[in-house]
Amino acid sequence: MMTGTSAPIQESAPQPEAAAQVETQTSQPPILLPEHTEAPRRSLQYLSGVAALVLIFFASASLTVAYLSGSQPAAAGQAAAAAANDPFSGVMIEAQGAYVIDLTTNRVLYSKNPDIQLPLASLTKVALALAVSGVLKPEMDVTIPEHTTPDGAPIRLPAGLRFEVRDLIDFTLVASSNEGASILADAAEDALRATYPEAVAGASALWRMNDIAKNLGLRNTFFLNTSGLDLSPTQAGAYGSAHDVALLFGHAASTASDVFGHTSRDRIEIRATSGETVSGVNTDEALPAIPGLIMGKTGFTELAGGNLAILFEVGPTHPVVAVVLHSTRNGRFEDMKKLVAATQDAVAAGQ
Question: Transmembrane stretches, by residue range (predicted)?
């Protein structure tokens, strides 16, 4: 397993040694009286014993050094061989945070700054989908209200049309629609308040999203809005770590796989009850390079940079989660391709 580069240890500068001071003695050596001659004799015996112990110590130390000198090259060789056989050893990515975990063995295959807290951007919508789908039935109809889009983009979901909840969730996730996120949060308000009386009125979906993060033990994750849009040039709409996102994805796939199934498609088209259709393209440009994709979500804002998280299978019933945070708009896709390829090699080699 490769880990992120840690900060270099600062070595303290060597201290200059104090100059030795030699003090000369000008007085004559003392004359021993007969009654004092036995003491020097005992002192000579004592010094002889000390000298013998010192010789034994140095002999033992020499043997120890010789042993260690012979074992270090072997240990270094083993470490070098292990690094050479690790498919992740040569992986270089732009992302500031990354995490790859094999869900079958619960083994971490790769990590880079896994616990650093970074803006999540639209990865936030995974938590929103969990919050909404927990209280609204998938076949329930939602009438699109009069609205403006949170990001100022053109309206793609016209007011007055009626869509099923599952279709709105699919469109919001696949097309990474901030408009859809806002509509879903409003649509689930009453049901969430009924299910969770302690939820904050008018912001029940946001409350539930943070409640989910708390219950999953996502210590570095919190949400400030339901879409992940930056709130200001210095304040993101949500924060989390690569490790936390991996846990969230694992939970989503294991408890609500039907909610996220369409995120593996390259495009989405939803149909209103009156027949009108709305289509969207998947924002994940790495889709063709990810075999066995089960679910995925992109994210990009000025503060977050490029984010991408996926859950894919490297073999039958062998799921793996991979996350990259704070890469670049295009770099996130290249980063993920490298991690997927290394994962396939590692699993094939039995690592």
Answer: 46-68
SS (H, E, C) 108-176: EEEEECCCCCEECHHHHHHHHHHHHHCCCCCCCEEECCCCCCCCCCCCCCCCCCEEEHHHHHHHHHHCC
What is the residue extent of each domain of the chain? Answer: 97-348
Encode burial over 20-44: b for 16+ CB neighbours within 10 A, e otherwise: eeeeeeeeeeeeeeeeeeeeeeeee
- Please answer whether residues 322 and 344 qualify as being in contact, where contact means their C-beta atoms are separated by less than 8 angstroms: no
Tokens linked to 164: 């099923």
The model's pLDDT over 94-113, given as tens digits with 9 standing for 90+, comes to: 999 999 999 999 999 999 99
Question: Which architecture does CATH list for 97-348?
Answer: 3-Layer(aba) Sandwich (3.40)
Q: String of b and e for 318-338 (b: at least 16 CB within 10 Å)?
A: ebbbbbbbbbeeebbbbbbeb
Per-residue pLDDT tens for 316-334? 889 999 999 999 999 999 9
